[in-house]
Structure formats: structure tokens, C-alpha cells
């Protein structure tokens, strides 16, 4: 049972896909229900995995490995060479990402009640997207990773282009093109590594590159490693995104349907961070170390650039989009700090921003549903007509600007703690961003909820109701519990981070 | 009892959660929940204080966050300063909540108000109980949010909205300084725990410059929270919040947190004389600076706000001149008399529905309780002999003198003269002369509002006697107990007797001058300075600080943002569109070659094959 | 028994193929293009048969394959001519230069 659990987890959305596919097109209610139920099996399976972990079961027990494809005829040397296996595995880091994925997917499925047309296609793509995301975080080799990675791109492309706002098609094209370029770079790196070493297994590659194990064929020279590491970083920096590769993400945030942005900002962007940690840092620690300054530099640039631009936006969705860029800058800063505090902070920031962005975009969805606009000048005084909504908005804004007691603080604190140790100058520059974040978040949130009530938005019974409380409460609850007791999240990460620090060569 | 002290902040948190989840359905009954919970906190704090008199410091922590091998802790600690602060905070909060029941009557979001008060009280109590710097920072920001929520309570008012935003952002600037200071201190000493930090500091692991930098960064946090120059301007604006809030947050508790922070980190500051200088000078300058603005303000709450800024400057001055006991002492007495003054001012506002002192006057006979209560507070803050303010201010002057910085001493003396003058100006403008009010029927406030004021007035009179030159220096000795080496030793500042005499004379002179101008009207109001005078206008506009910020920092940030958004649109966007255009062009060229002539395609394919064959023939099949 | 050497067959096939290729790539008339393609196929057939008789390991497989090829060539010619007929009906021409509707 144990061995098949992970495959079951990854492919469990198929159940929902079959159910939705069998429904007639017009059955809106049933399709939506089935679509939501389709996200429950992975959710429960991931909870089960998590409970197993906390009851002390080693995560490596869940690994599965099945021979899949073999290239060439090299058994004489080593039967493992040039084979691609279907192998899934888990460690603390991926467990946390899996949880994030399943939780946010289920909540986004609830938030999809606002989808107005073609529910069937929507939920089919939605569930395929979930398979892709789960696969990305469990894949144990690069080829499998790449396949699942591409599997997230295509559904997301259609989901944005079909169900988004006015300029959705443009947004979905730029999403596809940027990410396509990113994955092209990724594919080249993966193929070079495969051709040179004969394996794509992440653990094997990590060992080969860090422990100085020799590959059978052409050994990889130092400068080659350097280039490969850089290529990994660029491929994932596009995904994250980091200034100056960010413009696709702004469009996607502004034009995609809010429930998809919940997934996009909540999970898809995080694949970038995951990739940098696993591949950039994991496989090439030596080279990564020498690139760390650049990583931090671009982190600080993104952090400040996003913050400054968020300050002048008039569309709330754009404020959030630039704030995402800014917060991803913090991730880069943490990853470049090269110490435990920084890396742990970066991972925390990834999770924390996933939760916060999901909640914010859920609220954006509610807001758009009620008022038909997200333009700040047209809003105002929502605290009167929608007090509970405004409360959530304010709480979420506070979480986003790093208020203690919420998850954002823990991550920002750790990132700066780490960064002040390794790059004090850049850290001191970055600190300005903390103030700017407060300024732009308060500006946006207060323009919406405070002030005089705008006649456009004055209606009774607009507040959150019924099912809408579920995503809001669950996400806020998670944000606060991580903020109040961070060891909740810190525990599973310890092993991964220790291994990484070992490879990076001590503190 | 002390091991149960963690319950103290939990009670107000319960208020917050219950009232929030009830969603306003409880209406004014919410007040009972708030009052009962805070009463429980107060009683518990009082018991803890009693026990602390007998027993040593209690501290308990649990692992909170592990970073690699380092365990960050959370928990609580009860030492002398904490125990004292717990009582002050829970008491003032309790009194303010009682008072608010009358003051906020009829308010639509009544229970929300109590929820926010509960949240603030929770955060403030958590702040004073924190056993380490990280936890202190944690609650430090939370009190900021409590203050933000309460300032912006009237969310539909533009001024309240702006004031709340300003308060949050300006204190945030300070907070960032504090955060950086904490982080640097952590890397210097390897810990966030007070005890370990002080030990490390005394063993000299951090260089002198490093210490000064860290101490100043931490002080920046205190500057932001306590409204010291140059981050003071949010505090007067914060008066847009309901008056009980001003009494609780912006007079007695939160703004004193900065002073509390410096007091808590006192051994660190002691280790760096430069940092002490900075604290003392900032404090001294703020004291006289804010007092001078208070001279001409016409809004009763603003006068009190600037007076608060000035008094906080006083406390900083005391700490900066090594007067640890003096600073903490004044913190305590100020909490009582300033809360009293705000509540009394609130009572006046409640009665005649204006905050403009030009529209008041002649209320002495009409507000039979509020008048004397206000007078008590005014006398206490002015340093009138035998009231609490007299003793604590005296202690500060002594400390400044003993420290040997005569310029700061002179500043302090002038400030106390100004304080007496503007406070009595306020008093006489409100309570004497003929009525200038629109409201004919002036009604005294209900007893639920008067009771808290009476308690505060009582405390404002007697709380000075815990530390006097005549009946012993109980407070100082208790605070110093066990910490002599860390805190620099002296439980009482000694100075020549003439200082006390002079302080009294200066106060009385201020009172007399105010009396001549505003009560007796022997001297015209333009006696000192004309209303349209340049100097007056500068004071009236608070030295144009807000305008300066607006035109420098505000415009710089906005300009930079716009500049960057042009970069975003034209440079980043331009690069992107250049790439797409060039790819599109390439595609167009390719499609030109696509003539649809099958034979041409065949020809090209054939030529390609031929080329490949040639290459194959030449290289023998291996590309090298 | 010395018959015709293998190289002669191959040269014949080469010549035939080249003629076919030339015709397929240059002639305007689609019928001639089709005929040229037949020529190329037959050149390949000659090769197959020649190798099956005179190759290193002679076997009948080559001849069998040439039969396949002839069949396919016939089918191809039939389909090609059918397309050509319908094209002619529609466009009134068998000139390949004018058949460029697959242009970009």
C-alpha cells in the first residue's frame, strides 16, 4: 500500500476528471460539486501522509520506482545508465508543498463558484492542473519533473485564456511564451545533464555533483557546471518571477479569473522557488554559492521594484500583482543568504505568500462579484456595507505587510536575519522595502475599505456569506497558526535544510 | 501566582475574540465582557505585583522556532519593571473601558470598539511580559495595529483614515530600525534573551561602534513608538481617534512603550556613551520642541498630545542621563495624570461637543466634577508641589544635573516652565471666563465616566510618594534590587536642594503667567507674541514638519514610483515588445519563402540532402 | 557465366532516378510530374531487384519488395491522377505553377 500511496495521491484527481467528464454539459450545480469533490481525494491523502509523517513514519517509505524508458544498450556498463524511471518520492520540503497544493486547490475549487460558463471544461482543466502540480513536487527525476511541469502550463494557459477578464487572451499568450522560454532553457539543461551523466535522478545527480563522483562519460567541467546552474536559475527566475522577467505575471494576475490566480500565485509561482532550491542550490551548491550575491541583488531589486510600482497602481489586482513580485524578491533574498535562517525564511515566505496571495485573490473574486470593479478610485467605504469582508481584507493586508502573529512576519524576519549575516549592505537597502510594503498595502486596503462610502458600492447584504467563509477562514487560520507557532512548519523542513547546508559547506 | 501570569494578556484576547465573533450582536452588552475580563487581568496583575515584592524574577520559556541548531524561545518573564507595567497597563485599560461605557454610548460599532480595546490591551500586556527582544518586537507591532485600528475607528472620516495610516507608517519606520537593531544584536551576542544579551555586552564581544549602532537602531524604534522628534508627527494626528483611546494608547501605555524599551535595554545603552548622548539629546530636544508647539494649539486634545510628546521626551532625557529610576518613575506618574487629563478633556468634549478651546470657557461652575479633576491633573503635570508630577520631574532634573550636562538641564527647566504655562492656559481657557460655547445646556458626565477619573486623580496625587527625598526611595530600591551592576547602581539621584526650589518656582511662574494672561486678562494675549507673527505661525504650523515630510519624502517616493512605472512601461515593456516584434519579423520572412510551389520545396529538400551527403562524405560521418 | 555486372544496373537506376527527379522538380505539367515520380520509383525497383540477385547475400526478399513497390506505385498513380482530375475540373489547369493555394 505504502508504495502506491504517492502515485495514488498524484493521480487521484483523475477520479474527479472522470466524474466531471461523464456529466452532461448543462448540469452546472452537479459539475461544480463534482469538481470540488474531485479535489478532496488528494486533500485527504495529503493529510494522511502528513499524519504518517508526524507519527514518525519515514517519508522515504513512500518512494516508488518503476522502470519506464531505456535509451541505448548499455547494460554492460551499468544497467541504471540512460534509463528514465517513473519515480516519485517525498521529503519534508515536498510534503509541505504538497499540502499547500492540495489545500489551495480545494479552496480554489470552492472559489470557482463564480465561473459563469463552460463549467465542464473548466473543472477538467482545473483537475489536470492539480495532477501537474502534485507531480512536480513529488517527481524524483528531472524528466518526470519536466513532464509534470509542462502539464501545469497547458491547462493554466487555457484556464487563463478562456475564463479570464477582458484582455485574457493576451495574458494567456504571454504566460505561455515566457513560461515556454523558461521550460525550453530547463529542457536544454536537463538534456545536457542526461547526456553527460546518464541519469536524471535528482538524488543521484546531487551526489554526483557534490560528492565529486565521476560520471562514466564526459566529466562536466567547472565552467559547464557554472553555466548549467545559471541556466537553472534563469529558468526558474522566469517562473518565480524575478525582475526583469516579471511582466507576464502582472498580466496574468490582472486578467486571469481570481480562482485561478489563487492557484497561480498560491502554487504555480512557487514551483520556481522549489526548482531553485532543489536544482540550482541542490545539484550545484559550489556554483550556486558563487552566484549568491547576484541572487540576492536581484532579490532586493525585485523587492523594491515591486514595492515602488505597487504604490502607484490604481487597480487593486495590479497592486497585488506587484506585491507578489516584491514578495518573491524576499524569497530570492533568503535563498541567496546561504545560511539556515535565510533558506528557511525563503521557504516560509513561499508558503506564507502562497496562503496570503490565495486569500487576497479570493477576496478580489468576492469583491469583483459584488461590485463589478477592482479599481481603487471607484471603491471606498466598504467597511460599512461589507464589514466582515473588510475585516478579512485588513487582516490579510496586515499579514502581507509582515505583521507579527501572521506567517508573513516569520518569513521576513528569518530572511533578514539570515541576510544581515551574509550580505549586510544589501540587507540594509532591502529594509526600505519593509516600510514601502506597509505604505502600499495600507494605501490600497484603506482606499477600499475606509473613507466615505461610494454610492457605487453602497448596498446591503453584500457581505461574505455561506460557503465564502470556508476559504477565508481556513486560509486566515493557517496564516495565523503559522505566525503564532512557526515550528509547526519548521519541523518537517529541518532535515532538508540541514542536508542543503551540508552541501553548501557549513554556515 | 506568577506562573499563571500568562493568563493576564489572555483575558483581553478573549474579549477581542468573543466580541469579534459575535459580530456586533452584543451591542452595548459587549462592554461588560470587556470590563470583566480586564478586571480579571488587573486583579491578577496586582497579585503578581504583590508576589513579586517577595519573590525573585520568574521566567519560563518554550521553544518557538528552530533555525538550524538555534532555538528561538517564547514565554514570559516577571521582573520588577514588568510587574509594575502590568499593573499600570491593566489598571488604565480597566478605567478607560469603564469610562468608554459612558463616553461611547449610542455608538453604532460599540462592541467593535471594545473588541479593539481588548486586542490592544492584550498586545500591550504581552509586550511588557516579553522575556526576549523578539517577542517584544512581536507585540510591539501588535500594539501598533491596535493603535491603528482605534485611531481609524471612525473609518468614514477622511482625517481619521489619514491619521491611522500615518501612525502606522511612521511607527513602522521606527519598527524597522528596531528590527535591524535586534538582528544585529543577535549576530553580535547570539541570543534574543535579555539576560544573555546583557552578559555578552558586558563581556565585550561587540565592538564599541557596533554597540552604539545597535543601541541607536533600537532607540529609533523607541523614537517611532514614543513620538520623539523626528517621528513625532503621527501622535498629535492620532487624536482623531475616540478620546478614551487617546487616554489609553496615546498617553498612558503604548507611547510609553518606547520608554519602556529603552529602560528594558538600559544595560545596552549604558555600555555606549554615544548612544546615551543621542537618547538624552533627542529626549531633551523633543521635550522643548513639543512644548513650544503646545503653547499655541487650539484643539484641547492636540495640546494634550504635544504635551505627551514633550513629557515622553522628558522621560527619554532622564534615561539618557542615566536616570533609570527617574525615567520609569515619571513613566508611571505620567500614565496616571495624563490619562486623567485626557479623560477629563473627553468629559468636557462630551459635554459641549467641541474640541476647540476658543469655543469653551466658563465651565468651572457647570462641570462640578470634571473641573476639579482636570485641575488635579493640570497641577500634577505642572509639577505643583506634593503632587506626583512634582516628585518625578524633580527626580529627572536631579538626574540631568548629576549627569553634568547643564545644557540639557537648562532645557528641562525651560520645558517645565512651558509645561506649566500651556497646561494652565488650557485650564483657564476651558474653565474660566465667560462661556463662548454654542451649547447652552451643559450636563456633567455620568458617574460611570467620573469614577475612573476619580481613581486616576487619586493616583495622580499619591503615586509620587513611592519615591520621595523625604519618605524614602522605595521604588528605586525595588527596581534596582538584584540589578545594581546592570543598571548602573543609584536608586536615587542626588542634587543640591536649590534645584527642587527652583523647579517649584519655575512651575509657579508658568502658572502665574498663564493666570495673568488667560484668567485675569491683566496681560493681553498678544503680550508675548502677535497672532500673525512669523514665529507664531511657525509654531501654529508645528514647525512645518508635516509639510517638509510631504514635500521631501512623500514626493521623492511618489516620484521614484512614477519613474519606475515609466521604466516598467517603456524599458521593460519595450524590451519585451522588441523581442516579440523581431520574432514576428523573422516569422514573416519565413512565410515569404513559403510560395506554395511544391516543386520548389522538393528542390530545396533535394539540395539539403545533397549538402548533407557532401558533409557526410567529407567528414566521414562524424562531426567533431 | 558472366552477365551484366551490378554496377551497370546501379548506373541505370541512377540515371533513371535523376531523370525522374529532374522531371518531378522542373516540369510544369502535373501529368509529367506524376510520370517522373513513377520513373523514380522504378529506379528504386531496379536497385532492389539488382541487389536481390547480385548483392552480398542474395535473397528473394528484394524481388518481393519490388512487387510491393509496384503495387504502391500503381495505387499512388491512381490517387494522384484522381486528384489531378478533380483539380482540373475545378481550376481548368494541370500546370503545377498555378497550384499554390498552400502558400502562407
List the helices and strands and how they pair.
The complex is a heterotrimer of chains A (about 500), B (about 625) and C (about 100).
Chain A (H helix, E strand, L loop, with lengths): L1 H10 L1 H10 L5 H11 L1 H15 L9 E7 L12 E6 L3 H20 L7 H20 L3 H22 L4 H30 L4 H9 L11 H18 L7 H9 L2 H26 L1 H26 L5 H21 L3 H32 L10 H4 L1 H14 L6 H16 L1 H26 L19 H16 L2 H18 L3
Antiparallel strand pairs in A: 1-2
Helix pairs in contact in A: 1-4, 1-6, 2-3, 2-6, 3-6, 4-5, 5-6, 5-12, 5-15, 5-21, 6-7, 6-12, 7-8, 7-12, 8-10, 8-11, 9-12, 10-12, 11-14, 12-13, 12-14, 12-15, 13-14, 13-19, 14-15, 14-18, 14-19, 15-17, 15-18, 15-20, 15-21, 17-19, 17-20, 18-19, 18-20
Chain B lengths: L6 H16 L7 H25 L3 E10 L2 E9 L1 H24 L6 H20 L3 H19 L6 H32 L4 H9 L5 H18 L8 H4 L5 H10 L3 H9 L1 H5 L2 H22 L5 H21 L3 H29 L17 H13 L5 H16 L2 H26 L15 H16 L11 H7 L3 H4 L9 H23 L14 H7 L4 H49 L4 H22 L5
Antiparallel strand pairs in B: 1-2
Helix pairs in contact in B: 1-2, 1-4, 2-3, 2-4, 3-4, 3-10, 3-15, 3-19, 4-5, 5-6, 6-7, 6-8, 8-11, 8-13, 10-15, 11-14, 11-15, 13-14, 13-18, 14-15, 14-17, 14-18, 15-16, 15-17, 15-19, 16-18, 16-19, 17-18, 17-22, 18-22
Chain C lengths: L5 H21 L3 H25 L6 H31 L13
Helix pairs in contact in C: 1-2, 2-3
Give structural notes.
- Helices cover 74% and strands 3% of the residues of chain A.
- Chain A has 507 residues and is mainly α.
- Chain A is globular, with a radius of gyration of 22 Å.
- In chain A, strands 1-2 form a two-stranded antiparallel sheet.
- The mean pLDDT of chain A is 86.
- Chain B has 624 residues and is mostly helical.
- Helices cover 71% and strands 3% of the residues of chain B.
- A two-stranded antiparallel ribbon of chain B has the order 1-2.
- Chain B is built from 25 helices and 2 strands.
- The longest helix of chain B has 49 residues, at 545-593.
- Chain B is globular, with a radius of gyration of 31 Å.
- In chain B, α1 packs antiparallel against α2 and α13 runs antiparallel to α14.
- With 104 residues, chain C is an all-alpha fold.
- Chain C has a domain at 29-91.
- In chain C, α2 packs antiparallel against α3.
- Chain C is elongated.
- Chain C starts with 5 loop residues before the first helix and ends in a 13-residue tail after the last helix.
- The mean pLDDT of chain C is 88.
- The chains are: A mainly alpha (507), B mainly alpha (624), C mainly alpha (104).
Amino acid at each position: 500500500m505504502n508504495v502506491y500511496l504517492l502515485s495514488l495521491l498524484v493521480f487521484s484527481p483523475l477520479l474527479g476528471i472522470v466524474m466531471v467528464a461523464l456529466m452532461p454539459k448543462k448540469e452546472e450545480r452537479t459539475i461544480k460539486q463534482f469538481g470540488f469533490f474531485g479535489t478532496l481525494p488528494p486533500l485527504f491523502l495529503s493529510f494522511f501522509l502528513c499524519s504518517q509523517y508526524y507519527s514518525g513514519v519515514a517519508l522515504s517509505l513512500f518512494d516508488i520506482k518503476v522502470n519506464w524508458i531505456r535509451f541505448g544498450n548499455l547494460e554492460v556498463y551499468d544497467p541504471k545508465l540512460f534509463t528514465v524511471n517513473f519515480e516519485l518520492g517525498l521529503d519534508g520540503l515536498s510534503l509541505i508543498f504538497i499540502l499547500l497544493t492540495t489545500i489551495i486547490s480545494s479552496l480554489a475549487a470552492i472559489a470557482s463558484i463564480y465561473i459563469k460558463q463552460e463549467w465542464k471544461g473548466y473543472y477538467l482543466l482545473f483537475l489536470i492542473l492539480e495532477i501537474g502540480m502534485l507531480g512536480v513536487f513529488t517527481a524524483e527525476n528531472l524528466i518526470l519533473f519536466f513532464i509534470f511541469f509542462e502539464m501545469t502550463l497547458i491547462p493554466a494557459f487555457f484556464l487563463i485564456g478562456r475564463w479570464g477578464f477582458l484582455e485574457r487572451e493576451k495574458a494567456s499568450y504571454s504566460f505561455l511564451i515566457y513560461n515556454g522560454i523558461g521550460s525550453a532553457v530547463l529542457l536544454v539543461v536537463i538534456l545536457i545533464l542526461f547526456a553527460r551523466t546518464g541519469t536524471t535522478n535528482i538524488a543521484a545527480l546531487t551526489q554526483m555533483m557534490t560528492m565529486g563522483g565521476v560520471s562514466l562519460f564526459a566529466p562536466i567541467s567547472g565552467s559547464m557546471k557554472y553555466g548549467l546552474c545559471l541556466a537553472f536559475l534563469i529558468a526558474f527566475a522566469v517562473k518565480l518571477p524575478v525582475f526583469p522577467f516579471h511582466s507576464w505575471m502582472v498580466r496574468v494576475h490582472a486578467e486571469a479569473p481570481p480562482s485561478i490566480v489563487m492557484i497561480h500565485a498560491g502554487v504555480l509561482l512557487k514551483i520556481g522557488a522549489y526548482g531553485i532550491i532543489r536544482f540550482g542550490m541542490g545539484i550545484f551548491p559550489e556554483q550556486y554559492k558563487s552566484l549568491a550575491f547576484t541572487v540576492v541583488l536581484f532579490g532586493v531589486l525585485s523587492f523594491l521594484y515591486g514595492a515602488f510600482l505597487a504604490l502607484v497602481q490604481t487597480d487593486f489586482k495590479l497592486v497585488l500583482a506587484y506585491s507578489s513580485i516584491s514578495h518573491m524578491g524576499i524569497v530570492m533574498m533568503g535563498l541567496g543568504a546561504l545560511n539556515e535562517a535565510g533558506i528557511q525564511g525563503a521557504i516560509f515566505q513561499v508558503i506564507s505568500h502562497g496562503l496570503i496571495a490565495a486569500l487576497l485573490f479570493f477576496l478580489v473574486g468576492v469583491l469583483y462579484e459584488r461590485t463589478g470593479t477592482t479599481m481603487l478610485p471607484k471603491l471606498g467605504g466598504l467597511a460599512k456595507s461589507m464589514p466582515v469582508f473588510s475585516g478579512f481584507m485588513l487582516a490579510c493586508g496586515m499579514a502581507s505587510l509582515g505583521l507579527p502573529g501572521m506567517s508573513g512576519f516569520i518569513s521576513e524576519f528569518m530572511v533578514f536575519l539570515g541576510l544581515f549575516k551574509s550580505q549586510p549592505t544589501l540587507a540594509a537597502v532591502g529594509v526600505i522595502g519593509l516600510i514601502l510594503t506597509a505604505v502600499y498595502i495600507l494605501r490600497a486596503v484603506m482606499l477600499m475599505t475606509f473613507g466615505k462610502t461610494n454610492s457605487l458600492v453602497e448596498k446591503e447584504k453584500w457581505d461574505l456569506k455561506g460557503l465564502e467563509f470556508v476559504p477565508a477562514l481556513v486560509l486566515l487560520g493557517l496564516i495565523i497558526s503559522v505566525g503564532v507557532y512557526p515550528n509547526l512548519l519548521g519541523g518537517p523542513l529541518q532535515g532538508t535544510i540541514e542536508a542543503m547546508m551540508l552541501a553548501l559547506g557549513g554556515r | 501566582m506568577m506562573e499563571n501570569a500568562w493568563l493576564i494578556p489572555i483575558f483581553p484576547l478573549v474579549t477581542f475574540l468573543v466580541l469579534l465573533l459575535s459580530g456586533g450582536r452584543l451591542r452595548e452588552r459587549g462592554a461588560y465582557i470587556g470590563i470583566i475580563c480586564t478586571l480579571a487581568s488587573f486583579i491578577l496583575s496586582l497579585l503578581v505585583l504583590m508576589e513579586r515584592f517577595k519573590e525573585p524574577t520568574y521566567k519560563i520559556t518554550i521553544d518557538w522556532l528552530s533555525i538550524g541548531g538555534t532555538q528561538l524561545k517564547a514565554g514570559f518573564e516577571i521582573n520588577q519593571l514588568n510587574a509594575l507595567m502590568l499593573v499600570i497597563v491593566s489598571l488604565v485599560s480597566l478605567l478607560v473601558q469603564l469610562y468608554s461605557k459612558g463616553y461611547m454610548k449610542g455608538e453604532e460599532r460599540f462592541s467593535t470598539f471594545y473588541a479593539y480595546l481588548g486586542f490592544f490591551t492584550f498586545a500591550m500586556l504581552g509586550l511588557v511580559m516579553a522575556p526576549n527582544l523578539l517577542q517584544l518586537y512581536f507585540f510591539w507591532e501588535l500594539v501598533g495595529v491596535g493603535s491603528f485600528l482605534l485611531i481609524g475607528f471612525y473609518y468614514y472620516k477622511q482625517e481619521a483614515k489619514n491619521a491611522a495610516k500615518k501612525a502606522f507608517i511612521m511607527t513602522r519606520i521606527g519598527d524597522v530600525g528596531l528590527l535591524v537593531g535586534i538582528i544585529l544584536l543577535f549576530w553580535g551576542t547570539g541570543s534574543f534573551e535579555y539576560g544573555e544579551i546583557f552578559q555578552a555586552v558586558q563581556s565585550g564581544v561587540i565592538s564599541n561602534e557596533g554597540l552604539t549602532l545597535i543601541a541607536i537602531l533600537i532607540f529609533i524604534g523607541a523614537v517611532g513608538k514614543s513620538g520623539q522628534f523626528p517621528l513625532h508627527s503621527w501622535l498629535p494626528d492620532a487624536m482623531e481617534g475616540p478620546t478614551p483611546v487617546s487616554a489609553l494608547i496615546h498617553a498612558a501605555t503604548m507611547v510609553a512603550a518606547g520608554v519602556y524599551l529603552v529602560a528594558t535595554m538600559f544595560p545596552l545603552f549604558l555600555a555606549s556613551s554615544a548612544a546615551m548622548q543621542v537618547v538624552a539629546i533627542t529626549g531633551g530636544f523633543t521635550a522643548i520642541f513639543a512644548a513650544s508647539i503646545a503653547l499655541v494649539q487650539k484643539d484641547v486634545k492636540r495640546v494634550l498630545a504635544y504635551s505627551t510628546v514633550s513629557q515622553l521626551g522628558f522621560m527619554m532625557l532622564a534615561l539618557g542621563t542615566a536616570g533609570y529610576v527617574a525615567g520609569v518613575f515619571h513613566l508611571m506618574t505620567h500614565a496616571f495624570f495624563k490619562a486623567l487629563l485626557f479623560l477629563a478633556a473627553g468629559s468636557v468634549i462630551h459635554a459641549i461637543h467641541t474640541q476647540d478651546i476658543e469655543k469653551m470657557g466658563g465651565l468651572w461652575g457647570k462641570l462640578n466634577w470634571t473641573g476639579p479633576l482636570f485641575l488635579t491633573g493640570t497641577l500634577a503635570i505642572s509639577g505643583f508641589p506634593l503632587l506626583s508630577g512634582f516628585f518625578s520631574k524633580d527626580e529627572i532634573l536631579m538626574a540631568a544635573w548629576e549627569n553634568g550636562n547643564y545644557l540639557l538641564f537648562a532645557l528641562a527647566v525651560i520645558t517645565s516652565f512651558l509645561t506649566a504655562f500651556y497646561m494652565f492656559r488650557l485650564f483657564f481657557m476651558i474653565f474660566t471666563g465667560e462661556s463662548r460655547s454654542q451649547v447652552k445646556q451643559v450636563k456633567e458626565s455620568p458617574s460611570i465616566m467620573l469614577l475612573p477619573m476619580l481613581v486616576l486623580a487619586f493616583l495622580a496625587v499619591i503615586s509620587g510618594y513611592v519615591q520621595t527625598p523625604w519618605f524614602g526611595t522605595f521604588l528605586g530600591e525595588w527596581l534596582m534590587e538584584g540589578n545594581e551592576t546592570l543598571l548602573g547602581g543609584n536608586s536615587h539621584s542626588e542634587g543640591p536642594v536649590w534645584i527642587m526650589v527652583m523647579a517649584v518656582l519655575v512651575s509657579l511662574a508658568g502658572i502665574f503667567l498663564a493666570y495673568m494672561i488667560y484668567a485675569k486678562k491683566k496681560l493681553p494675549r498678544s503680550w508675548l507674541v502677535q497672532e500673525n507673527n512669523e514665529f507664531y505661525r511657525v509654531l501654529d504650523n508645528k514647525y512645518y514638519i508635516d509639510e517638509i515630510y510631504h514635500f521631501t519624502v512623500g514626493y521623492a517616493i511618489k516620484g521614484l514610483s512614477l519613474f519606475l512605472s515609466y521604466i516598467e512601461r517603456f524599458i521593460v515593456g519595450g524590451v519585451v515588445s522588441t523581442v516579440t516584434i523581431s520574432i514576428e519579423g523573422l516569422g514573416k520572412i519565413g512565410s515569404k519563402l513559403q510560395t506554395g510551389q511544391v516543386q520548389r520545396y522538393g528542390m530545396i529538400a533535394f539540395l539539403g540532402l545533397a549538402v548533407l551527403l557532401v558533409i557526410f562524405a567529407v567528414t566521414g560521418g562524424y562531426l567533431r | 557465366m558472366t552477365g551484366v555486372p551490378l554496377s551497370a544496373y546501379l548506373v541505370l537506376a541512377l540515371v533513371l532516378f535523376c531523370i525522374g527527379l529532374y522531371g518531378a522538380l522542373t516540369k510544369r505539367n502535373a501529368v509529367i510530374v506524376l510520370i517522373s515520380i513513377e520513373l523514380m520509383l522504378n529506379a528504386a525497383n531496379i536497385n532492389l531487384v539488382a541487389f536481390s540477385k547480385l548483392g552480398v547475400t542474395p535473397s528473394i526478399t528484394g524481388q518481393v519488395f519490388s512487387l510491393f513497390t509496384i503495387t504502391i506505385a500503381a495505387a499512388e498513380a491512381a490517387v494522384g491522377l484522381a486528384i489531378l482530375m478533380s483539380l482540373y475540373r475545378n481550376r481548368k489547369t494541370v500546370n503545377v505553377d498555378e497550384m499554390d493555394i498552400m502558400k502562407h
